[in-house]
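hey can u check if this looks right to u? its 467 residues, i copy pasted from the old doc so theres a chance i mangled smth
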Amino acid sequence: MHDGDVVMMKAMEKISRQGVFALLLAAIVWHPSAEGALPWFEDRERPSLAPMLKEVLPGVVNISTVSRVQIRQNPLFSDPFFRRFFNLPEIPRERERQSLGSGVIMDADEGYVLTNNHVIEHADEITVTLRDGRSFRAEVVGTDPEADLAVLRIEAENLHAVPLGDSDALEVGDFVVAIGNPFGLGQTVTSGIVSALGRSGLGIEGYEDFIQTDASINPGNSGGALVDLDGRLVGINTAIVAPSGGNVGIGFAIPVNMARQIMEQLIEYGEVRRGQLGVLIQDVTPELAEALDLETHQGAVVAQVMEDSPAARAGLRVGDVIVAVNGEPVKNAAQLRNRIGLLRVGSRVTLDVIRDGRRKTVRAVIEEPRRERVDAGRITKLLAGAELGPVTPDHPLAGRVEGLEVLDVERGSRAWRAGLRRGDVIVSVNRMRVKTLADLKRAVQARRDGLLLNIRRGEGALFIVIR
């Protein structure tokens, strides 16, 4: 066959394909029985999420906040003579900062809305906007920075709550839908699957047990709903991996079972009253498994048992490997912290442990953490409103970082305005290491005009200046 013949055949094939495509397009457009629908949907229902979303969307809200930030100025700008001499206008001492996020109506009768703590943190005004366009000023019922959850309340009628699902029943590959307010565009729906379960150790929050999904989650989606195909809430959208600032297919949501337990305590107490077991723990590494003669690489190794703690009274020992809590398997130290951290003070807990190669059961009662608390304002007025103490055993950085834990910070105080938050661990003050309150006193005396704090927050570190 000559080259000319080959070229001719390819041309004929192209013409043939174009002709078939044209005929198919004509059949679609001019099919006499179409009546506004494509022919292959004539005899069966179109697959669509629309019926489910009509029921769910009214339960997802947009949240906007306004916070007032103090503007630091050179002292000369506060001098009336200096401003008059240089004919300078009055410079505002504060500016407003706005942010957007999402939330989920959890109780239509009481007006409770669940969202992320970081959505409303530092906010002076919080506005909740419903899908029907109504807007309401919201009050904060309670917050839990360690799990990044907050409960708001609005006074409104005819609310629609999103029905709750069971996040423990999720499996990798299940279809899910994310609903929120990305980039302030307004209510937006994206779909995907559950990519992974039980994600932890990311350093995003103190307590992590994330659902990972490839349903698009972007800035502004935080606090929104992750629902299954039945329209039941299975997670609260919280974070993304975003090297470029936008969605790359890796998003994280707090499981609804975890969120519900925290919400109940926030409504009842205004805070989460986490109890303690009284142990320092670490993951089972291959090296530890070999040294302890373990047949499993899952669980949490007890590295230290606190004196006069629930763990000590229950008989836990250093070297024990906790592999289950109340019959539920424990994969690592982070998962054990989550399980214990969700139990209320006074709860009875059954622990399955491996000791000397044998499995045994230990029973304990979760107790209120014993905290040495000191009003730091007694040491320096710059820390007035902040309560400090030793790092508690249930803190994510316990056993890894030495310093003073911030147990509470009064909103509006100098320390609060500077950025100090509950759960922070102060590791140095004025470039001096601090492990005890006595260390703090010495560091404060070294410099009277201000404080330079180096703190650890999650897996990160930062400096804070208080004047």
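Residues 13 and 447 are 85 Å apart (CA to CA).
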